[in-house]
Structures are given as C-alpha cells and as structure tokens.
Amino acid sequence: MKKKHNFYILIVLFISFSCSNTAELDEGLVDNFDRQQILENVTDNIILPAFEDFTQKIVQLEESVTLFTNTKNLVNLEEVQARWFEAYKIWQHIEMFNILKAEEVYFIQKMNTYPASVSKIENNISTGDYDLETNNNNWVAQGFPTLDYLLFGLKANNTSTLLFYQNIENIAYLNYLQAVVSQMVDITEIVSQNWIVSRDVFVSSSENSATSSLNMLTNDFIYYFEKGLRTNKFGIPAGVFSAKNARVGNVEAYYNSTKSKELSLEALKAVKGFFKGETYNSTGTGASLKSYLDYMTETDNLSSAIITKFDESEQLINNLDDNFADQIITNNSLMINVFDKLQEGVILLKTDLLSVLSISVDYIDADGD
Predict the structure, then answer these.
(1) Which domain holds residue 341?
(2) What is the pTM for the complete model shown?
(3) Is residue 323 located within the same domain as residue 304?
(4) Is 232 contained in some domain?
C-alpha cells in the first residue's frame, strides 16, 4: 500500500531495542543532537545535486530523441539508448525522496512503475488517445520502463529496431516515444524546482514529530529500502511473494535486463550514501542518520551493523549475472539470497533505528514484513 504523508497512523510503537550487536541506550541520555544539520547536509549535498544531475541527464535524453526523430540512423538510436541508461542510473539516487511535490504529483509512479504494460502502451499508440498527466492507469505506460520497451522490446536487435522506426507506418510509435520523454522532462522540472524553492522551510523542520522533515525523510528512506530495493528489484521477480513462482517479467529494465544488476547496485549505493551522509558524487561526508545513531547509542555498533548489511548485500549482488532475467531462470536461489540479506537490513532499520531515534513508522506494511 502506498504510504501517505497527508494523514498519519496513530499507533505508538512499543518496541524494545534488542539488537545484540549494539550497546543499550542510556536511559538518562537526552536527545540534544542537532537534527537540522542532517537536513541541511542531505538537502544541500545529496538531494539537490542529485536532482541537478538527473535533470541534466533527462534533458539530454530528450535531445537525443529529437536528434533520432530528425535523423533515424543506428548511431542516433544507440545514443538514445545510452542516454536512457545514464538517466536511469541517476534515477536510482532520487527515487527514495518521495516527499513534498514528488509525492503530490506521483513522481515515482509516473517515472518507474514496472513492469510496463505492453497492452496499455500499444493501445495508447494505436488510438492516440491517452493522458500521461492525470490518468493513473497510464503509470504502467510511461516513464523508464515504457522507454525500455520502446527502445529494446519492439524487435530482437538494434538493426531491426531502426528499420521499425524508419518505417513511416510506425510513426505513432515515434510520436509516443517523444511524448513519454517530454512528460518525464516536464515532471522532473516541477519536482526539481520545488526542492529549490522549498529548501529553507524543509531544513528548518527539524523537530521530532510525524510531520517534521527528518521523520518523513527517514520513513521515505526505509520505505524505499524495503519496497523499492528489496521487494521490487529482488523479491517480486524472484517469486518471494508468489509461492516461489518466479516472475521474470517483473525484472527492472526487463527488455534490456543486462542492465538490471547495475541499476540495483546503483540503488544500493544511493541508500548507503544517504545513511552515511556522503555528498553526491563526492568523497565528502556530513551529518547523517549514522552520526545521529552513534550519538544516541554512544557507540557505532548499530550503525556498523547496518552498513555491514549493505556491504554483504552488495557482495551477493555482485555475484549475480548481469542479466537478472537470466539469473532467475538459471539459479533463482541467488536472487532470493539477496532478498534475505536485504531483509536483515530492513529489520535493523525499521525496528532498531526507528526505536533508537523515537521515530514512528508512517506507512502501512503491505506484505507482512
């Protein structure tokens, strides 16, 4: 179930801090940590730079589509494909920030709801009657997954794909490609600009309450780790939620699934960097959930345990085939192993971290974990 920040679950979490690898929280310790420092570091050094990079990449993608439209050759087709993947990688760094305008305009759903619905895409193209802005039925017919289908799923190889687009009878497909990319550019600009204008108000909301920026941001981070990374990229395709019946078609970037491993590693890099307060595309580090945890527990045991789960998950992902579809077919147990390891991280984040920081969960767990 999608989380909502507009109303809150009035449940007090009576959870004891029971991580065997962490020191007991001193009952007399007063939380005097400057929470605003976390908001300032995350906003100024992670969110805003990532959105700036992503905006640039998505505009470059649109420019490459325009070039291909004007000159349909193999070089320009491959340029569109390359720009798609470059933007998709950066997307992994901003998907977790489903807050403010992003939540209001359903940014995440419009950009990366997968698997794409081929029947919906084909119907939109054949009828020319579609609304990518307000019709949520089109979430499965827009964004990166739809581009995946239009760039890699129409034909078996690039030569055949080029011939397809060069055929004047298929002009509607090219028009739809342009429309999808244009919508992605427009909505990215809206969300990106909102972060800029909302920055000061956002970082000043540092109190510990259900509506404060840090509490909502922390929930978004954990929700993404649990659902966007653990469940969507591994659990669902591997069949964890369907009686071990694998769903290969649910792999992210299914039609170019040689990229699915790289996308998942990029997503894991993003969540680890957020937790540690690492500056986007830099070696700098600032105030973070890690430093907050270390302050509250007077040790780095819990934060180190969380980082260890990130690292162990990364090692398991690196052992997978670059193509997750092939991996599921040949040895699905390795995909499930990644899911299980990520789940160990979910427990530390959702139970121990939130308990120590006295932050309540603001979303409903839809799969019982």
Answers:
(1) 207-369
(2) 0.91
(3) yes
(4) yes
Check whether 25 has a pLDDT greater than 70: no
Task: Examine the domain organization and report whether 316 and 196 are in the same domain.
Answer: no
Average of per-residue pLDDT across 40-46: 98
CATH code of residue 169: 1.20.1420.20
Per the prediction, the chain carries an average pLDDT of: 92
Domain boundary among 175, 206, 237: 206
Q: How many domains does the chain have?
A: 2
Considering the domain boundaries, does residue 67 fall inside one?
yes
What's the chain look like in SS3? CCCCCCCCCCCCCCCCCCCCCCCCCCCCCCCCCCHHHHHHHHHHHHHHHHHHHHHHHHHHHHHHHHHHHHCCCHHHHHHHHHHHHHHHHHHCCCCCCCCCHHHHCCHHHHHHCCCCCHHHHHHHHHHCCCCCCCCHHHHHHCHHHHHHHHHHHCCCCHHHHHHHHHCHHHHHHHHHHHHHHHHHHHHHHHHHHHHHHHHHHHHHCCCCCCCCHHHHHHHHHHHHHHHHHHHHHHHHHHCCCCCCCCCHHHCCCHHHHHHHHHHHHHHHHHHHHHHHCECCCCCCECCCHHHHHHHHHCCCHHHHHHHHHHHHHHHHHHCCCCCHHHHHHHHCHHHHHHHHHHHHHHHHHHHHHHHHCCCCCCCCCCCCC
Do 47 and 189 have their domain in common?
yes
- Confidence class of residue 369 from pLDDT cuts 50, 70 and 90? very low
Q: Is residue 50 predicted with pLDDT exceeding 60?
A: yes
What's the rounded mean pLDDT across residues 1-13? 39
